Amino acid sequence: MITNEARQIFINIVGSDNYDDSKTGRLVYSYDATPQFQAMPDAVISPRNKEEISKIVQVCNEYNIPIVPRGSGTNLCAGTCPTEGGIVLLFKLLNKIVEIDEENLTVTVQPGVITLDLTKAVEAKGLFYPPDPSSMKISTIGGNINENSGGLRGLKYGVTRDYVIALEIVLANGEIIRTGGKLAKDVAGYDLTRLFVGSEGTLGIITEATLKLIPLPETKKTILAQYQDLEAAAKTVSKIIANKIIPTTLEFLDQPTIEAVEAFAQIGLPTDVKAILLIEQDGPEEVVTRDIDRIVEICKSEDAVSVKAAESEEEAEALRTARRSALSALARLKPTTILEDATVPRSEIAKMVKAIEEIAQKYDLRICTFGHAGDGNLHPTCLTDVRNLDEIERVEKAFEEIFAKAIDLGGTITGEHGVGVMKAPYLEMKLGAAGIDAMKAIKIGLDPNNIMNPGKVFAKDSRKRVVVSK
Amino acid sequence: MITNEARQIFINIVGSDNYDDSKTGRLVYSYDATPQFQAMPDAVISPRNKEEISKIVQVCNEYNIPIVPRGSGTNLCAGTCPTEGGIVLLFKLLNKIVEIDEENLTVTVQPGVITLDLTKAVEAKGLFYPPDPSSMKISTIGGNINENSGGLRGLKYGVTRDYVIALEIVLANGEIIRTGGKLAKDVAGYDLTRLFVGSEGTLGIITEATLKLIPLPETKKTILAQYQDLEAAAKTVSKIIANKIIPTTLEFLDQPTIEAVEAFAQIGLPTDVKAILLIEQDGPEEVVTRDIDRIVEICKSEDAVSVKAAESEEEAEALRTARRSALSALARLKPTTILEDATVPRSEIAKMVKAIEEIAQKYDLRICTFGHAGDGNLHPTCLTDVRNLDEIERVEKAFEEIFAKAIDLGGTITGEHGVGVMKAPYLEMKLGAAGIDAMKAIKIGLDPNNIMNPGKVFAKDSRKRVVVSK
Predict the structure, then answer these.
(1) What 3-state class would DSSP assign to A81?
(2) Domain with A338 in it
(3) pLDDT, tens only, A300-352
(4) B80 neighbors B66 (Cβ within 8 angstroms)
(5) In this structure, what CATH number is given to the domain that contains residue B173?
(6) Nearest-CA neighbor of B370 among B340, B400, B413, B337?
(7) Of B413, B395, B414, B418, which is closest to residue B466 (Cα–Cα)?
(8) Among residues 109-128 of chain A, which lie with CB inside 8 Å of chain B?
(9) For residue A448, what is the nearest residue in chain B, using CA coordinates?
(10) How far apart (Å, rounded) are the C-alpha atoms in residues B279 and B374?
(11) Which of A330, A338, A411, B112 fits a 20 to 30 Å CA distance from A403?
(12) Which helix (H) or strand (E) holds B177?
């Protein structure tokens, strides 16, 4: 709840244009891309600069008001759902690319910059920002940093964390700090930069970031391999890596996903095969050609029924776009789509895919699986309906088993989507009580009043995936 | 101080063979590679497993005994000098390579493994662990992780942090946790893995680590470029990067360093030039050849007086070894060698080298400069004598100015050596009071009794570089 007094202070800070507590305004920000979670914020604030954010944080401390920093809300862990009310902080006025530094190969941005805009801006200068979450067309870089987003190129190039080298942060006490720099090497104290990457807005508010760039790869090639056997596809993945080839992208789609994607994108994907691998390599021409030739051989040796190279960049881009649309495509089939993020060491992909199939059968559910096979990051996706309470209960049990299996195989409960509210009850499966206690000690140390995105990462109780009342 | 009671408990835990409180035993571990720091520990303990370490930590908490975890003590920030007494914890019995996983491209090691042994073991399988601190022949991987060591290949491949993907840690409360996994993507909660990398043993004790490996580059080429003008050498560095070539190694040595290294290594380095660049590229044959050809052109266009390719791997290795021996070579010239670690964005290398020269002149000191020019990580090295108190005072003032200049140019007070005791008084220059407070909140949260390597990272007072009484 925001008192009239606090309300007036907020308006004095940001101006009345940038403070919205209308019912409509609040409703818009009462949910994010995560199904089953909705809660009304008390107000939506769009600060114009870090000084305003610092003041807002101080007011929130004084009046004990939760702050939920939010980019485009494309996250899938309810990380930006204001489950405890308070203010949603928008970055639409902090959306500048501050600098592209070609000498140091860095780009400095405000958090509200759209990921794809950043990508295009640096590519125009022959530079490359590799992280490419599927939501990159609408996600913001601030959201990517808070969630440590992954993407299709994670296998070869790593994730958002691997490119964040400096941050400007408004801490929970309102102090503004800068971490890191345009530096490949910096060991001055604890690595606050990486601690804040992926901390989901629970430790402070990122107001500027400097990202490492690399030279844009000279060329790129894309192939599509088709399989009548899931295991053969999974074995292909392992064999490529074991042959010491690290492709840029190594994506897996099972038959139901292919069917949905093809119905959605209509680019001529084969809908009669059990699985496809979408494989890309980038780099210098000679190397790409050599790697792709070897990959084609490996696919064939592992019983691919067809291996086809994209004949043009347009065709390749169509394939990539189709893959990125998997969630949207599946979401059309049933009222509720729950996309998960279980991740295993890549050697365990075949076992994990098989386990997901068995668990889906056991609980009589429709689970499609696709994802970043090369880095073991799978997205089992359940097509369901939140109004079917009996089925939703089975969904919950099935995913709990899927997470347990992932952990059992040396994996994790979330590879790139974050914990948020949704995964919080499962976090102990991965970290144990002692691991969670260590994280809590950091949270309490940096945000003693628990105003920074409260209720995220740490579970309040054992409540799991249930329908949240609206 | 260790009471008789605590002493007996320690002996019961590790056995009397692994507990040493003899004067000789303690003296050996009273210092590390950092000049001017020495302090006697109360005992030296060599645990045999993590369970023993957990018990030791619990005893230390109960009896308020400082713990200083130590690998080979090659650090240059007094990070392993037991300045507050207590126990030095050795990892000589935890020195196994646990597993090389060729399917997932990982290696799992105990902390006491020597870095070079690890490197050789994985290279025998065609895999590559890039971090290569100059001390790698004797340093341990545990020490590398605690200090987040860099090295000659940092420019292209990053530092230790970029390869640590999972840790087993004994926390300050004695709990044993596991972070991360054999996973390219893992966002289950805060990034404890990277928080512990570079935390200098102040947050917990690392008992096992899983490191990411990459395929061993197919080939490598090495060239030596000579300059009669420091600025031309520095400009070459910027121009190579601006041409979107990222060499593996781009090392800079000034004339006094070259002279000392040549006297030491006798491999025929030119001692009559103002600076040399040692440049290496690795990767597929075609790419290396193309990059090296372009680098040679760039060197010549920037007035290199000579550019010479190593004619064999032996010759290249001799050059690398010579570069790695710079500290040893310089250390022979005067009783005390203070090697520093100021780091700037690579675009500022020329300004920084010039500033160091001017500061050395101003304070009438002999400062040689060499380092990893490609990533802006310079090692200005002062040849002095701790017994000359007047000169040491000037050394202190000179380095303070060097750090201030580095910060001013967007750099940091330490690129790869860590803070330890030595840099602690300067840390605020980089982070500000608010940044240090944030780090202290983490420290207090995770180690409330301050038993984990106390006195490191955080300065007790404004005492700077002074001779510590023995």
Answers:
(1) coil
(2) 334-417
(3) 999 999 999 999 989 998 888 888 889 889 999 999 999 999 899 999 998 99
(4) no
(5) 3.30.465.10
(6) B340
(7) B395
(8) 126-127
(9) B441
(10) 9
(11) A330
(12) strand B176-180
